Amino acid sequence: MERVPLVAAANVSERLAQPPALAISTVIFALRPSVSSGRPTLWLPLVKRIREPFKGLWALPGGPLTQAESLLDAAARNLQDTTGLAPSYLEQLYAFGGLHRSPSQRVVSIVYWALVQSTEAEQAEESENVQWFRADGLQELAFDHNEIVKYALWRLRNKMEYGPIAYHLLGEKFTLAQVREVYEAVLNRSVDPANFRRQLKQTAGIEPTDEFLQGGKHRPPRLYRYSGTNNHLVKTHLLEQPLLERAGPPGHPPPTL
Amino acid sequence: MERVPLVAAANVSERLAQPPALAISTVIFALRPSVSSGRPTLWLPLVKRIREPFKGLWALPGGPLTQAESLLDAAARNLQDTTGLAPSYLEQLYAFGGLHRSPSQRVVSIVYWALVQSTEAEQAEESENVQWFRADGLQELAFDHNEIVKYALWRLRNKMEYGPIAYHLLGEKFTLAQVREVYEAVLNRSVDPANFRRQLKQTAGIEPTDEFLQGGKHRPPRLYRYSGTNNHLVKTHLLEQPLLERAGPPGHPPPTL
DNA sequence: CCAAAAGTGTTACCGTTACACCCATGT
DNA sequence: ACATGGGTGTAACGGTAACACTTTTGG
């Protein structure tokens, strides 16, 4: 929400003299069962604009950056404000600073993206002005937010292919099949269960528990736990380059809006 | 409640009311022959601070974001301003927004990183207040700029392992051995010439010319040309996820300063 | 006993790595 | 001729993909 104190009837020269406004927005992903198939799919919460510009359209949660907050804190806070949830993973996506992103004023948005555990996501608040939508096939959003979501999705998919982040969409304990479902949902392709299992077991940070998931129709699968630094929420630390995390910035940063 | 000496006579509440300042900085890489070995190594230009804070220390080139510029334009401009050069590659690195990056004022810096062709880099301007330094083993810099450079280096190295960016450090035409030298210089390890050659030839976007580099002591190597979208300088385009560019955001974003 | 998911074993495939070898040129 | 980097051939290695197979549960 690039809401900015409308600068009343500011004349042009005055507007030019002012620095660009700075806002934080967040793309929040969570898994929810699809209405049709019941299988998990990606959803995200949006906020309805209650004033111009783009009044009535849906937009990413966000707000101005206040003096006392770091960028990360600001992102976490507006995640909390809109959904009532705490992120399981939170990372900077990109800074969007095109000249005409907002018709009324020059705004630079620093956008974060977050993953929320599915167990918590069920309790997420909804209201008249906050609703969840399927991440694919979104309607037209305010500002350049369609592009931003598209880019966030690309990042999520890209990262899921090599990084240990799928767990952040699940609860504390999970079966390997559930992890596989996450991959299939996010990457939108089927994955061989046998090979997938082996790859996961090689991956450090994923530990078997003594528990098994009961209540299924078949052989009860073992539950696992993710023991990677749980603070993936906050300080992704000081530039050690981990083995698995190939990473690198977006091969393609998004259009320079 | 730390006392901040600067900011003239601004009282605290006034400072809190102001939005954080927004600045653009750029980490500019170019290859220059090492003084000792003569082999190419990574260098970058820094600017000496002529006022507080950190007066006398070296810092990344940068400045405030003006109303009329996109983020990318601003980065390109201050690259031009400090070195007199045009970037061959330019990409957003990260937005740094920690609370105490600058002692006097809250500043959010959106940092870009750039590659400059070695042919041009030779003509780069130097002066009392602008000098080039070897990218590794830098002295203490102003602000959090040591961290930023460290992160930019990590990104460069990471990207070089899978992306077609080495060419941006060379001239228009180059031998495969020169490309290999770039890899060796940046990644700091030796690369098998035979295998490297084959990998490059598979890579799309690199085309042989009819010319050969004369004047060497041995068999003249063929010259090649990079025909990838040359606008890698500017619009890295609309989110097509290319095959080679695995990419994904920094596995680890830098410390949230 | 049967269906279906959990979990294991095995093999083919493919890209990378290591390194032996030939080619072309200046001295 | 010979030293040296340019350039090609080839075989071992390692990770992934495909898929047959065994195990364990509920019905």
TrEMBL record, chains A, B:
<dbReference type="Pfam" id="PF21906">
    <property type="entry name" value="WHD_NrtR"/>
</dbReference>
<dbReference type="InterPro" id="IPR036388">
    <property type="entry name" value="WH-like_DNA-bd_sf"/>
</dbReference>
<dbReference type="Pfam" id="PF00293">
    <property type="entry name" value="NUDIX"/>
</dbReference>
<dbReference type="InterPro" id="IPR054105">
    <property type="entry name" value="WHD_NrtR"/>
</dbReference>
<protein>
    <submittedName>
        <fullName>NUDIX hydrolase</fullName>
    </submittedName>
</protein>
<keyword id="KW-0378">Hydrolase</keyword>
<dbReference type="GO" id="GO:0016787">
    <property type="term" value="F:hydrolase activity"/>
</dbReference>
<dbReference type="InterPro" id="IPR000086">
    <property type="entry name" value="NUDIX_hydrolase_dom"/>
</dbReference>
<dbReference type="InterPro" id="IPR036390">
    <property type="entry name" value="WH_DNA-bd_sf"/>
</dbReference>
<dbReference type="InterPro" id="IPR015797">
    <property type="entry name" value="NUDIX_hydrolase-like_dom_sf"/>
</dbReference>
